[in-house]
Amino acid sequence: MLQTLASHNDDIRRLIERGYAVSYDSKYLVVRDIPYLDQQGALKKGAIVTQLEFIDQTRVKQKNHQVSFAGSAPHGLNGAPIPNMGDTAHQIRLSDVSSDVVVERQFSVKPTKGYKDFLDKIDRYVTVISGPAMARHQTTPLTFNVYGDGHEDSVFKFHDTLTSRAEISDLVIPFKDEIVAIIGLGGTGGYVLDYMVKTPVKGIRAFDADGFHVHNAFRSPGRLTKSELGKSKARVLAGRYRNFRKGLSIQTKFIDESCGKDLKGVTFAFVCVDKGSSRAAIHALLISKGIPFIDVGMGLNRKRGPISGGLRTTYFSAADAEKVRAEKLVPTHDDPDDIYKTNIQIAELNALNASFAVIAYKKTLGFYVDDEPIYNLLMSLGDMRTPRQAE
Hints:
With 391 residues, the protein is of the alpha+beta class. Helix content is 26%, strand content 22%. Strand 1 and strand 2 (28-37) form a beta hairpin.
């Protein structure tokens, strides 16, 4: 609901983009992480709660100039209660999602011309309530934190200001029930993980049995610290992304036909492995479970002069997976001369390969336009063209 409100109410969108810890509950806008001083000058954190009046299903306006407050009485730098707040006892019943917000009082500060919008209202109350605390403790109410919403629970641990700012909230709705598996976290798989972490799918399950070494850092996203070297890729990547979102599971595990339980509930998969026999077993498992998937491949070589080769993105829909497998578009054997078995991998090409794969996946959910559906995309490095096989 908060994303819907942000998409249709510019002042709420700007509150979120400013960095306020905004949530929605029971027709109230709740702004947590509001710093203030108690009588002893100690730093406390409270929450502002203000009522919304709905104009229609998505647009809102201010009910009045008042706000409720979860916290004790705010004090100034002189140790006295902040004056002219109209501080009165008050209670509001919110849902269990906001059980941490216990409203104790109501404030009434009304400018001569009233408040222009919710951003103006919250900004002014924060200036009054938090000014002394910000001056004494160099703190800020702009934490960008995400808290549970009375109508929806974001998978992200920070507000997704990109979605509301771009006004594409309706387009991300199909992602909310998606559970995506990423099998293989090498160069391309690492970038797929990076992109999917920032996509509002319900869950991500990623698998890789290998360790993380220096060469991995040169072809995958993110920083490198010495302490990561020699650890499993799963442990390294979990450490990088666990603070960004919920619903993320990264396991040090090799996936084969015996791993059906690991994929229970998965709605889509990315196969990012470079060993043919492993790929064949993974394909068999995914097809047997009716899970649509995308397999990626990179074939680069250097016989003499510059690097040549290309990238491949192959989509196996749930309906046509057997037919696509029968076309043998994807190497599923361990031929030592197989172009897809060469060791050359370059970060920008891994990223491009991952981009093709994620774009293709998002097309299946209507996020991107799909005028000419494809199931096998090949990009030649020499001419940067993508002759395609269309369905």
